[in-house]
Structure formats: C-alpha cells, structure tokens
Amino acid sequence: MDWGMKNRLSQLIKSDGHCLFMPIDHGYFLGPTSKLEKPGETIKPLLQYSDALFVTRGVLRSCVPPDNSVPIILRVSGGTSVVGKDLANEGITTSIKEAVRLNASAVGLSVFIGSDYEHQTLMNLSNLVNEAEEYGIPVMAVTAVGKELEKRDARYLALCCRIAAELGAKVVKTYWCENFDKVVNGCPVPVVIAGGPKTDTELEVLEFVHDGMQRGAIGVNLGRNIWQNQHPVAMIKAIRAVIHENASAKEANKIYESEKKKK
C-alpha cells in the first residue's frame, strides 16, 4: 500500500484503530431530511466529535466551512430519489479528479446486492476502485438494501461485505444485525456500522453500537441516530465513548443523560 493511501486511511481511522464517521449525505436521494434541512447548522456543534464526515460535493461546497479540519469521505454515487422507481439504479456522479480537487480523504458509494441493479452497482465499485487506486484514495463501499429491509441478516450482509472487499473496497459500511461477528469475520477489510433496527431509546442505539464493536467492527457511520436526536451533542459524545473509550452501553447512556442537561 502506497504512502498516500496509508496516510489517508490514518486520517480516517484513529490510532486506536477505531472511528466515528458521521454521514450527512442523505439528501442525495431523500431531499431535505428532517433535522438536515440546513446541514451547516446541524453539523456545526458535532464536527469536533467526528472522525470524518460523509458528504456530497454540493453540501460540502455550500455548507462545510473551508477551514474544517475533519477528514472528508465524498459520496460519489447517486442518480435516484426516494420517489423514483428503484433506489438501486445508481451511477457514479462525481469523478476522482473532483475528489482530489475537494481534498477528500476517501470516496464512498452504495452497492445493491440482490437487486435488479446488482451488476451495475458492483461495476460502479470496481471502476471507482480502479480510478481511486491511481491517486491513493481509499474507497468505502456501502452495502445498501433500498426498501428491502428484511434482507438485513447476517448471511446476506456477510455476502455483501465480502464481495465489496473482494472488489477492492478499503472499508465497508454495513448495517448492524444479530450475529454481527459472522459479517465481520467474513470480511477481510475493516467494517463500520451503518445502523440497525428502529430503536425507541438512546440505550438501544448504544447497545447495538457496543455489540458491533465487541464483535469486530472498527466504528460507526451513524447520522440520523445522532443529529435527529433531541440532544445530538450528548448522543455523539456517548457513542464516541463506546468507540474510543471502550465504554459499555450503560456507561455511555449515563454520559448521554449527563450531557443532555448541559446547555
């Protein structure tokens, strides 16, 4: 692995081998998502607690301050919307030259394995890796499932993650599930947690993050569980404690309860 690739990965994955990525790319298919109508205002108090920001070029240019020192993972796939026929019908929207111009530390795209567009999105990943490797830029693959949420089980996600790694992804973002170790153990590159089942409490989020970390994930790529929370700073601090301080879910929940009382 060349120095540039190693350097960019070291910006994203901290010295303890863990990471907290915060995605705010949801608008590329959802439009003005709740609590993300004004991305710049949403992320302002959260950036200092994030290890990287997953974002599209449009929001990066218009909403992220240029003196920002948090590494950027650039979302480079898209072309569909939540009201369209099929979310899986994605293409590459942003070139590697654009990623270099924007000083991105990595690029990311979605693959939809098991969908009608499986081949197309896997070729998107393969072609992106071919181009990104020339510039020493790591690629993060996102194992998306569109509206077919029932596919989020260990067997399916292990398949997705392994294929993404086989095609050259340096990091894979996937959903938390029961028996998450089966997903991680079958993937030869680092895995970050995208989320899990719908939760009713902060403790439930912290529990699946803790479980995923214990089962081999290196960190998370969580957005809505943070910035849609009524106390987003308290929530990101609690999640950060699980990732970087090896806190238990209950210990992290105490941090959340304490921090949310602060102004």
Compact overview of the structure:
The protein has 263 residues and is α/β, with parallel strands linked by helices.
Q: What layout of secondary structure does this protein have?
A:
Layout: H1 3-12, E1 19-23, H2 27-30, H3 39-43, E2 52-55, H4 57-63, E3 72-75, E4 77-78, E5 91-92, H5 96-101, E6 106-111, H6 118-134, E7 139-143, H7 154-166, E8 171-175, H8 180-185, E9 191-195, H9 202-214, E10 219-221, H10 224-227, H11 232-244, H12 249-259
Parallel strand pairs: 1-2, 1-10, 2-3, 3-6, 6-7, 7-8, 8-9, 9-10
Antiparallel strand pairs: 4-5
Strand order across the biggest sheet?
1-2-3-6-7-8-9-10
Mean pLDDT: 95
Q: How many helices?
A: 12
- Can you summarize the main beta sheet? 8 strands, parallel, barrel
Euclidean distance between termini CA atoms: 45 Å
Tally of structural domains = 1
Description:
The protein has one domain (3-223): TIM Barrel. Helix content is 41%, strand content 16%. The chain has helices at 3-12, 27-30, 39-43, 57-63, 96-101, 118-134, 154-166, 180-185, 202-214, 224-227, 232-244, 249-259, and strands at residues 19-23, 52-55, 72-75, 77-78, 91-92, 106-111, 139-143, 171-175, 191-195, 219-221. The longest helix has 17 residues, at 118-134. The mean pLDDT is 95.
Describe this protein with a few key phrases.
single chain, 263 residues, alpha/beta, TIM Barrel, 8-stranded parallel barrel, two-stranded antiparallel ribbon, 10 strands
